[in-house]
Amino acid sequence: MELGTLTLRKFFVLDKPSASPAAETEAQFGGYAETIITDPADFDALEVQGVRDMAGEQGITDGTCCEVDNENPEFFSVFAHLVEGGVECIGDFTLLVDAQSYAGVIASQYGWNVVDYTGGTVTERLP
Question: What is the pLDDT of residues 58-116, one digit of tens each?
């Protein structure tokens, strides 16, 4: 399997509600779709991916360099897929269930599908 490398901006939002009962103590990150999705017409779907922070291994000290890794993830990210190609990260979560739930909420808001690469499934948008 070939893995891609992504450079991500992180916005730490700890007060967002989460689907997991333990999220208040376990969640290290949160969602920030409202910061990234300024024009919904630029996007057409969401992706859920497992990722690892490779900054230390890459010698990066002033940012984050994440690699998609659905086999051995350190955390899970939700990406908004750009119509013209590429993705923008809209949320980072400690727990997969939180990433999946967040993706479901955002997908319902915009009428998009979710492709979950952690299990290889496509979730149709919710009514």
Answer: 666 665 677 888 888 889 999 999 999 999 999 999 889 889 989 988 999 999 999 99
**DSSP E strand boundaries for the chain:** 5-8, 43-53, 64-68, 75-82, 87-93, 113-116, 121-123
Up-side HSE of residue 116: CA atoms within 13 Å toward CB? 18
Of 123 and 95, the structure prediction assigns the larger pLDDT to 95
Half-sphere exposure of residue 4, counting CA atoms within 13 Å on the CB side? 7
Pair 115, 48: CB distance under 8 Å? yes
For residue 62, the surrounding DSSP H or E stretch is none
Rounded Cα distance between 37 and 43, Å, is 8
